[in-house]
Amino acid sequence: MTTDQSLDLNSVGERARRRIMRRIMPYLFLLFIIAYLDRVNVGYAALQMKSDLAFTDDVLGLGAGIFFIGYFLLEIPGSILVERWSARGWIARILISWGIVAILMGFVRTRNQFYMLRFLLGAAEAGFFPGVMVYFTHWFRYQDRAKAVAMFMAAIPIANIVGSPLSGLLLGMNRFGLAGWRWLFIIEGAPAIIFGVVTIFYLTDRPHQAKWLAEDERNWITEELDRERQAKHTINSFRILQAFRNREVILITLAYFFMITSVYGFTFWLPTIVKKLSGASNLQVTLISALPYCVALAAILAIGWSSDRTRERRWHTAICMMVAGLGLLLSLTAGDHVALGVAAFCLAAAGMYGYLPGFWALPTSFLTGTAAAASIGLINSIGNLGGFAGPYVVGYLSKRTNSYVGGVTYLSLSALVAAGFVLSLRATRRKRSLV
To answer: Domain for residue 269, yes or no?
Structure first.
């Protein structure tokens, strides 16, 4: 290949990458903000639900966590459908169904209704996140993937940054005989239905279908992704069941379970812990609760950039997990000092979200095709059962001890255990030069 030909290919590649990023990322980013807010807004609603419905901490913790039981059931089938059928169709279905259930949360009257709708919300949303991770493999090369994941995952802290004060304002809304926490669910659930319809017309399943790319750009990204798949197949060619039994997949799944335990235990109980620590109003609590997520946003972008620049995933992931555990432990030493407690929570949040870009580049560093799709579904479904364990255990220990110390300690240890599993990985150490 001549120098001129090489430069021309680089020019085409740069154009294609920029156009794909501009077209896909902002939209998926917005969808994830909506998804995450509908998933965790129960933590803010709990500031009023607890007294309105006479729910105890263990009831709230179980209701928050039972979301992930429903979520568990459809993760793997959903991921495979994105790979073999249509990302656009499946994501649209997910959005519309979870939007309907999220709105119904605003009409809960009993504990059993609360449990049932949280379960259905999880089942409705199942497949969205792993489906997007699989969708990224259709559009982004391995060396660009952590950056894409970082930008996508930045929606999580932003959802909390925006959602915290928004939820605080909605909690003060009382119209037509409905309390603020009911309006919170209704108003925050509606956008999912609207964008579910938009998704059908906006997203494109594969590069060869993308009329918004020039022909040379379509050819370039298709050839790059084909080359990547062929390179992985020369090293490993897993069937689905083989991938499920693979040592690295099992370790990644265990790491995700323990890390998600820590993340969702923290996310759900943070407003309540801040409320107990500060005694502030609900609006002030939601504003304070947004601060750790501001730090998390900076961390996720910086660490995703660093992971792509160095093509190193394992240590970027594990160190962040250790930082999360350390931050939670330090929060226990703050005592009644609100500023110190919030600073420790900011450190914990940096680790809890900074690990994500490197982590989700791990499975696709040695798996491809349907095996990768199914494995991502497995990792996310089993790992997200930690989203049941974290909130429930903290709520259970809080009720039994009348303190959050035991629960926060448990969340800290979970993050440290997750780091240990990531450092035990072997395959990803050898894949940095794969593509």
So the answer is: yes
DSSP 158-174: HHHHHHHHHHHHHHT--
CA distance 415 to 234: 35
Per-residue pLDDT, 190: 92
Q: Considering the domain boundaries, does residue 9 fall inside one? A: no
Of the candidate ranges 29-38, 243-252, 311-320, 417-426, the one whose mean pLDDT is the lowest: 243-252
Q: Which residues are within 8 A (CB) of 86 and not within 5 positions of it... i.e. 6 or more apart? A: 205
Residue where the block lists tokens 């928050």? 64
Q: What's the pLDDT tens digit per position in 286-306?
A: 888 888 988 988 898 888 888
SS3 assignment, position 205: coil
In a domain? residue 243:
yes
Report the domain count for the chain.
1
Surface-to-core class of residue 367, CB atoms within 10 Å of its CB (0-12 exposed, 13-18 middle, 19+ buried): buried
CB of 318 within 8 A of CB of 421? no
| pLDDT tens, position by position, 90-123 | 888 889 998 999 999 889 889 999 999 989 988 8
Look at residue 244 in the predicted model and tell me its pLDDT: 64
Dihedral sign computed on CA atoms, order 345, 261, 397, 120: positive
CATH code, 380: 1.20.1250.20
